[in-house]
């Protein structure tokens, strides 16, 4: 059985079109993020719970603590946790955590 020349051309176009669509399907969209990236939404953004006690100031008017570069006083909340006590180099929180100033910063060498 012999195919007509027009049938050969039609067959060639159909096979070529199938190959092209297979190649196109295997190509990666260049606008998508890389393989190791993750996407987050505002509802799933992870909040950093690390609290750093930067300094403590005790005056006649009361004690103030600088935590994560923000000023707080006893009774206020930091990241939703109430500050229950401010000492000369520590801050106690209602959830049981105790923040301490890094001693190497507050002490003068040799004293």
Automatic annotation (TrEMBL):
Residues 1-24 form the signal peptide. The keyword Signal applies. This is MSHA biogenesis protein MshK. Keywords: Signal.
